[in-house]
User: What shape does this take?
Amino acid sequence: MTISAAIDLFLADRELRGCTQKTIFGYKMFLDMFASYCGGLGIMDCSLLDVGVVNGYQLYLLRKKNGNNGVSGLSRSTVRTYVRHVKVFLTYCFESGLIISNISLLVRLPRPDKRAIEILSDGAIKIIMENLDDGSAFALRNRIIILLMLDCGLRMMEVVGLKREDVHVTDSYLMVLGKGNKTRVVPVGNRVRNLLSDYMSLPMWKDAKHGYFLLHKSGRPITGSVVKSLCFRLKRGTGIKKLHPHLFRHTFATNYLLGGFGDVYELSRILGHSEVRTTERYLHIASYYEVIRRRGRDSYFDRLESGKGAEKND
Assistant: This one.
């Protein structure tokens, strides 16, 4: 069977398994790129796939030149994402009898880039909140969009997909539909609960003819583009250089642990992670920022200059 035909069967299988259209679209995009690479080598049939082909694809991605500046455009972390999708496809091919061995088990992913995740400082958050109070008709909605990510830990598309029936203001929680069509309960703080209640009292919200919670000025549901555009305006208005939707979620997770609001297991459930080890990275991030926050104390050199040496502050 050709690789393209196998991809079509695989995508149909994902749909039957209950994957969202966004997930299926992602698989199609990544696998079409893999099929295109194989086609360039003259490999059209699944039976010709082996570890060497997949490893060659990884090297191709790592060495791929960016047309604008001639430098490698894909990080190791990005290549890992590309190849993970290919590995799932290869496992499907093996289980379906399209290839004779499970090549996926032999494919090793490149080590990820170990970049420290930065979060927003308390000062930056205050500036963002002030910038959101611009007096516009949608200032309240925009504030809710940001706080659903910053104070509740929702992903951008979870904010966009929030339904009216998912918002339980009286009991201070949300029912959030996340990755893999998995639903989870997310607690809501008092400030956000009050903002949600105020938003629900607006005539525009009451008159909406659909079930989505957050509205575009046209009355239609908001899209991811609305959230990205809001972040771009905030970035320009506040002067904060790094500002994107997922940064708010990173900030929520780190501050949840720093503030002692719960442990990593509770945080994992709130974030909707399928494995706790995915959440554990925030333990390391929180430990870094705890050190930074303690730097208000004297350093070794401060003590040395004051004649205290390495003695501890009382």
The beta strands are 167-168, 173-177, 183-187. The radius of gyration is 24 Å. The chain has two domains: 3-106, 122-294.
